[in-house]
Specification:
- By secondary structure, the protein is of the alpha/beta class.
- Helix content is about 20%, strand content about 25%.
- The chain is built from 10 helices and 18 strands.
- It has helices at about 25-35, 55-60, 70-75, 95-105, 145-155, 180-190, 220-230, 275-280, 315-325, 345-360, and strands at about 1-5, 65-70, 110-115, 160-165, 200, 235-240, 245, 260, 290, 290-295, 330-335, 370-375, 400, 410-425, 435-445, 450-455, 460-480, 485-495.
- The strands form 3 sheets. Strands 1, 12, 13, 14, 15, 16, 17 and 18 form an 8-stranded antiparallel sheet that branches.
- A hairpin with a 5-residue loop joins strand 15 (about 435-445) and strand 16 (about 450-455).
- The longest helix is centred in the C-terminal third of the chain and has 17 residues, at about 345-360.
- It is globular.
- The two termini are about 20 Å apart.
- Mean pLDDT is about 90; it is low at about 1-35.
Length: about 500
C-alpha cells in the first residue's frame, strides 16, 4: 500500500543551530536565510493575521511544563483553603526545590510554575504587603522563601521560572474594596522584582468571597500592565490572556480544532470568559494571537493528598497527544508532598513518560524520503522555500507556495515501504496560522488514492493518530487554507506503546 502525504522535506541537509528559545525570531530568520541559497527577487511570504511575539513563540516551543501546587493546602488536605489557617501549618520538613527541578528536567519539562499565592492568600515568599506568609510561620524560623529556592534551582537546571498568583484572597482584610487592587499590584511588584526572569505569569480567574462575604472587582488592566512593566518577556496566562489562554478544561485536552487566535473584546478572566467550547477551539478569525495552554494534574486533585493515585502511562500519553499534539502547551501539575519533595511514585511515572515519548519519537521514518509538491514559491531553483525543507529539523526553514496556491499537495516518496501510525505536521507559526483543513492520503493496491485521515487545524504542532499501516509514499492535501500554507515540518513515526481508542484517532 502506498501512502502519500502532501508535504515537502529532504534528508538532513541542514542542521541550523537556531539557539536557545530565548533567541529572537528575527535573528533566527536571518540565520536561516543566510544559510540557504539566495532566491533573487523572491519575496518571503507575508505574515497572515495576528502572529506570535518572540516570547509567545519561545513559550509554545517549550511544549511541556511542570505546575507545582504547594502551600497550606498541602498540609490541610484542602483544595481551596479558607484563609484562616495558622501560618505554622505550612511546615515542610525537607524542602528541596533542586529535586523538583531535577525531576522536571528528567521528564523533559522546560519550565516550572509555582502557586506562589493560592486563594487562601498565603504567600510562599515574605510578601511585605501581607501578614499571611512564610515570614509569619515557624518554618526556617520565619526566614524561608520558596520563590528564592525555586528560582535559584530553575536557573541551575536551565528551566524557566513561572509564578501563579491568585487575585482572590480569602485572608486579605481589604479584599472586596477598591484598595485591594493596589495591594495586589504591590504583591505582583514584589514577586516579580526579586527572583530573576519570569517566563509565565499565571492568573486564576477565581473570584469568591473575602472577609464579610465581600467580592472584588478586579482591575485586570492594572494587573497586566504591572506584569508587562516588570517582566516584559513573561507570557501572561488567563482565560483570555493576553499572552496565552486557558484551554477550557482541566483534563489537559485541546480541541480537535484548535486555533491560536481569539477575539477577547468584551471578555475577562473568570465568569466573564468565553465558553469552554470557544476556549478549546479558538477562532479562525480571532483578532489576537492567544495560544492554548492545557492544564491537568498528575492526580485527581491539585494539591498533595496522602492517598493520591498517579495517572497511568497510557493516560499521560493520551493527554500528550490531545494537548501538544493538538496545538496546545501541556502544563502538568506535579504537587510536592509534606516534606517539600516530589514523591518517588510521581518521579518514577514521569521518567517512564519521558522514556516513552523519547522512544516513540526517536526515529522519523520520513527522513530519507524524496519530497515533491504541487508548487513552490520562487520555483524549483529557490532552495529557501523548497518542499524538502519539511524534513529539516531547523525550525526557521520551511516550504512555501505562491499566495494564490491555496490547495497545494505535498508528497513523501519513501525509500521503501515502512510501517507507521503517527503523522506529525507543523506550520511555521511566526507567519500566522493558515490551514483550516487537510487530508492524508495513501494509494490502494490499484494505485488509486484514498484518504486515511483528515484534520482541521495544524498550528505549531499536530499529531494524527492513525491505525497501523504500511506505505512507501504519503500525500498531504492542504485542501482548506485561509492563506497559502507555510509548513516547516512533516514526520512519520511508529508508536508501539500507546494504543488509542477508536474515538481518539486523528
Amino acid at each position: 500500500m502506498n501512502l502519500l502525504i502532501h508535504t515537502a522535506g529532504a534528508p538532513k541537509r541542514l542542521r541550523l543551530r537556531d539557539g536557545a528559545r530565548l533567541c529572537g525570531l528575527v535573528l533566527g530568520v536571518m540565520v536561516a536565510a543566510a544559510m540557504l541559497p539566495a532566491c533573487t527577487g523572491v519575496q518571503p511570504p507575508a505574515a497572515y493575521g495576528p502572529c506570535p511575539t518572540a516570547a509567545q513563540l519561545a513559550w509554545q516551543r517549550m511544549e511541556t511544563n511542570m505546575f507545582c501546587h504547594f502551600g497550606p493546602n498541602t498540609f490541610s488536605g484542602l483544595e481551596w483553603g479558607e484563609g484562616t489557617e495558622p501560618e505554622d501549618l505550612f511546615n515542610p520538613t525537607d524542602l528541596d526545590c533542586v529535586q523538583w527541578c531535577a525531576v522536571a528536567q528528567g521528564a523533559g519539562m522546560k519550565g516550572v510554575i509555582i502557586t506562589a499565592k493560592h486563594h487562601d492568600g498565603f504567600c510562599l515568599w515574605p510578601n511585605p504587603v501581607s501578614s499571611h506568609t512564610v515570614r509569619e510561620s515557624s518554618w526556617r524560623d520565619g526566614k524561608g522563601d520558596v520563590l528564592r529556592d525555586l528560582s535559584d534551582a530553575c536557573r541551575q537546571y536551565g528551566l524557566g521560572f513561572g509564578v501563579y498568583i491568585s487575585p482572590w484572597d480569602r485572608h486579605a482584610p481589604d479584599y472586596g474594596t477598591p484598595h485591594y487592587n493596589l495591594t495586589f499590584r504591590q504583591t505582583l511588584e514584589d514577586a516579580l522584582s526579586h527572583y530573576g526572569p519570569v517566563f509565565e505569569q499565571w492568573f486564576d480567574g477565581a473570584n469568591g468571597e473575602g472577609p464579610e462575604g465581600r467580592r472584588q472587582q478586579y482591575d485586570w488592566t492594572l494587573f497586566n500592565t504591572t506584569v508587562a512593566a516588570l517582566q516584559p518577556h513573561a507570557v501572561i496566562f488567563s482565560d483570555v490572556g493576553p499572552g496565552c489562554r486557558w484551554v477550557g478544561n482541566e483534563q489537559g485536552r485541546g480541541g480537535v480544532t484548535c486555533w491560536s487566535r481569539l477575539s477577547t473584546q468584551g471578555f475577562a478572566p473568570g465568569a466573564e470568559a468565553p465558553g469552554a467550547a470557544v476556549l478549546g477551539s479558538g477562532q479562525s478569525d480571532g483578532q489576537c494571537w492567544l495560544p492554548a495552554e492545557a492544564d491537568v494534574s498528575l492526580h485527581d486533585g491539585w494539591f498533595y493528598h496522602p492517598q493520591q493515585q498517579t495517572k497511568s502511562l497510557q493516560r499521560l500519553l493520551s493527554i500528550y497527544y490531545s494537548s501538544v499534539g493538538r496545538n496546545a502547551l501541556l502544563l502538568l501539575n506535579v504537587p510536592p508532598d509534606r516534606r517539600g519533595r516530589i514523591t518517588e511514585a510521581d518521579s518514577v511515572r514521569l521518567m517512564e513518560f519521558r522514556r516513552a515519548l523519547d522512544t516513540i519519537f526517536a526515529c522519523d521514518l520520513a527522513q530519507e524520503s524524496r519530497v515533491t509538491a504541487s508548487g513552490q514559491l520562487g520555483g524549483g531553483g529557490c532552495r529557501r522555500y523548497a518542499a524538502d525543507n519539511v524534513l529539516d529539523t531547523a525550525y526557521h526553514t520551511y516550504w512555501a507556495v505562491a499566495d494564490t496556491h491555496l490547495q497545494p499537495t505535498l508528497t513523501l516518496h519513501l525509500r521503501e515501504a515502512v510501517a507507521f501510525n503517527r503523522v506529525m505536521l507543523q506550520e511555521y507559526i511566526p507567519l500566522g496560522q493558515r490551514v483550516a483543513h487537510f487530508a492524508v492520503q495513501v494509494t490502494d493496491t490499484n494505485g488509486a488514492w484514498r484518504t486515511v485521515a483528515q484534520g482541521t487545524t495544524i498550528g505549531y504542532k499536530r499529531i494524527l493518530l492513525l491505525p497501523d499501516m504500511r506505505a512507501d509514499a504519503v500525500r498531504i492535501c492542504f485542501d482548506g487554507c485561509l492563506a497559502a500554507p507555510v509548513i516547516n515540518r512533516v514526520a512519520l513515526y511508529y508508536d508501539a506503546i500507546y494504543r488509542p481508542e477508536e474515538g481518539e484517532r486523528q
